[in-house]
Write the structure tokens for this entry.
Amino acid sequence: MIKFENVSKRFGSKTVLDNVSYEVRKGEIFVIVGPSGTGKSVSLKHMVHLLTPDEGRVLVAGEDISHADGVELERMREHFGYLFQGGALLAWLSVADNVALPLREKTSMSEAEIHKKVMETLELVELADDADKMPSEISGGMQKRAGLARAIIRDPEIVLYDEPTSGLDPVMSRHIDKLIANLNSKLGVTSVVVTHDLNSALSIGHRVAMLKAGRIVEISPPDQFRNSTNPEVREFLDAQFKITRISGEWEN
């Protein structure tokens, strides 16, 4: 569904992505982890051509998005919904109006059709009762869910999540994880998740990719990732987990 082919990206003298190649499969939850500053969010931005690679290319559904522009780029971006790290809600619009914004800007749907679609989508993220509230009246976790509703309102094939559990308590973080997994299952979308939260990565990911110093050091299913013998992966795991194996499970 998404393919990186030998992608490199530099900002000044710093190489953020260094000859990166991988493929995200249709319908999977692909999670990208790694230390700060290793190119995780930069990878997401390449997928929707918010950034252009210095070398290599990014393919979406077999088409090169990394060199598309104008009408062609807009068409290719229709594949995507994007959940920004902070939710990115407009403070002067209600939850419902924030979610409705892409429909009002990009479609010719009537207000009655928009209202129906918005309420159906808010139901999916468990916010139907909060449709008329303003962003300042809801919690950070609810803002993330509203941002997610807006990201999926036009039924994208691919949803990109930039640190979806950042700033949330553990209970709400697991709630967001459950929503991502449920939406992946119910809607059949392809999901790419960038996160620092290894609990999240290992619980929802079908495959986990680790970036370090701009390079992919491992891509594997969660169980294989947990038990990796790659020293860079082991160091990353050890930094976040107390390595105590009890009945086949990792303990924080």
